[in-house]
Amino acid sequence: MDWGLQNRLARFVKPGSGHTVMLAADHGYFMGPTRRLESPRATLAPLLPYADAIAVTRGVLRTSIPPTSDVPIVLRVSGGVSVLKEDLSDEAVTTSIEEALRLNVSAVALSVFVGAPHEHQSLVALGELVDAGEAYGMPVMAITAVGKELEKRDARYLSLACRVSAELGAHCVKTYYCEGFDKVVEGCPVPLVVAGGPKLDSDRAVLELCHGALAAGAIGVDMGRNIWQSDRPVAMIKAIRAIVHEKASVREAMDVLDGEKGRAPAPRRAAAA
Ligand code: R5P
Questions:
Q1: What number does the ligand 1 atom closest to the CA of 223 have?
Q2: Which of 164, 180, 195, 248 is 20 to 30 A (C-alpha) from 155?
Q3: 160-219 residue pLDDT tens
Q4: Rounded CA separation 145/34 (Å)
């Protein structure tokens, strides 16, 4: 792997733990002003010190993240369809590699829609983005999107989608956690991070998801709604950091969340040391 590409990856996959806590905030590109992300700047500001990277579009980056911030950026570069359409798979690359370089991002990300009506165009777009990324030392993250078919999130489907993404050259893959997630990890030769999906019923369920994913071999999370739709988002991301970077159990992470034992993980920069 090229030095520049490795260096960009190491900005957010922390060399100390080999893990990452990415904060996903790219929902607006097809969902509009998602609940509690109506004002991205206000939502994200208190969370940035605890994120190893932030996943956003160029619009949110320009308007809502100070250019003086040192948080690594994973730039969403695919889009072209909104939640008003039934078929969400009709995406294309909407942001060029040159723009990604100008914005000094650490990786680019696009959705692939395996099995969906526009499977072909999304997979070809992934291959082309990897070619462009390799030319400039820019890592590419494939996101195994399921559109509105949330029931697709099982090990059989996700194993297929992750493996296809890796075979086409993705340097890492974002997917969903599921029962039998170790099989998904086993079949995917590049690192996996997990999304959280829609807000879960309890804080414990969020932490169990993170713990289960890490135990099965994910290198971290790229999570949005279960952090910033939480009533205590900063405590939640700290609790997730404890699991991802400090091998905390769910119970220990719950203590961090509740502030009971004061086990408060250091923010991003110190954690990377
Ligand atoms: C979809 O909009 C994006 O890929 C999200 O970044 C991804 O789903 C992670 O966000 P959440 O944890 O809210 O599912």
A1: 12
A2: 248
A3: 999 999 999 999 999 999 999 999 999 999 999 999 999 999 999 999 999 999 999 999
A4: 18
